[in-house]
Amino acid sequence: MSSDSEQEVVDSSNPTQVPLPATKAALRAMRDADTKRPHISVLAAPSPFTKPKLSKTAANFDTWSWNMQMHLGSTGFWRYIQDNTSIRVPNRDYQPNAYANYRTNSDAAKYFLVANIDPKEAKHLKLLDEPSPHVLYTRLEAIYGNPGPTRQLKLMEKCFDVFLCNDAKMIDQFDDLMDMAFRAFRNMTENTWQCLIGVRAMGRDSSLSQARTLVLDAMAAAETAGKTDSYTPEHIRDILIRHHNESGTAPIAL
Predict the structure, then answer these.
(1) Is 3 part of any domain?
(2) Which of 116, 145, 174 is the last residue of a domain?
(3) pLDDT per residue over 46-56, tens digit each?
(4) Contact, 8 vs 77, CB < 8 A?
(5) Does some domain include residue 213?
(6) Pfam families, from UniProt (predicted)?
(7) In the 8-state DSSP scheme, what is residue 130?
(8) How far apart, in Å, are the Cα atoms of 172 and each of 155, 166, 176?
(9) Is the residue at 47 inside a domain?
(10) What mean pLDDT is reported for the chain?
(11) 3-class state of residue 117 by DSSP
């Protein structure tokens, strides 16, 4: 019969969790170490985040994510957000103190992210229901990472409405404009650019508002289906012709 120190203990080998030792003696040592000095401590609360909140209207995921990483990187919280293996989950039975501290830090990271998202959007998306800050961040990236045609158009409009003044804020304004222009053009193809220009041109005639909404909805549906370029300027042209001919004005000769 093997000695107590040689009796094997089954290890689940979960890459997201702290692996269990192979012997009962080692398990006792793990528990004793956790009692004396847990290998995970509760992190100090981060300072307030002063940058703009993440929102669909601002379409600012890239900037927000970078600022958040810079803000939380030195505090230790970003390691809970960036993936689910940098800090493995302690064993609840053999490392109860470390596990409790892990949960405290993980929850703090999740709540900090949610607190810096547009509150109406966070509530609507039920972001607090996510089980971990990493899962939450992955979902945020999926939701906000690609701005979509409607938000891209809004960003384009904001870019075109910016005019520089030769004052102390000019360089900051220029840098913000370049960042906004980058976000507006993110993942944009030539086809999308042409379609958005077409949609923008429909923005001043109120009689075209319904057709404009129809185009944006169709572009969004194509993007959701993973076929962004399947909706083309020709589709917009057809809608304009149909709308014009149905409005009672002189038909357009094709």
Answers:
(1) no
(2) 145
(3) 999 999 999 98
(4) no
(5) yes
(6) Retrotran_gag_2
(7) S
(8) 18, 11, 6
(9) no
(10) 85
(11) strand
pLDDT in tens, 55-113: 987 778 888 998 999 999 989 999 999 887 788 899 889 999 999 999 999 999 999 99
Specify the higher pLDDT residue, 254 or 120.
120
Q: Which of 206, 201, 233, 209 is nearest to 219 (CA)?
A: 233
Give residue-wise pLDDT tens across range 103-140.
999 999 999 999 999 999 999 999 999 999 999 999 99
Is there a single domain that holds both residue 156 and residue 235?
A: yes
Residue with tokens 């650019």: 193
Are 138 and 157 in the same domain?
A: no
Both tokens assigned to 190: 């030539």
Which of 85, 114, 145 corresponds to the end of one domain? 145
Residue 94 lies in a domain: yes
Domain of 90 in residue numbering reads as: 53-145
Q: Nearest CA to 156 among 180, 189, 174, 186?
A: 180
DSSP string, 188-213: --HHHHHHHHHHHHTSS-GGGHHHHH
Q: Report CA 238 to chain centroid distance, whole Å.
A: 35
| Cβ neighbours of 238 (radius 10 Å) | 11
Do 111 and 200 have their domain in common?
no
Task: Output the CA torsion sign for 77, 78, 83, 86.
Answer: negative
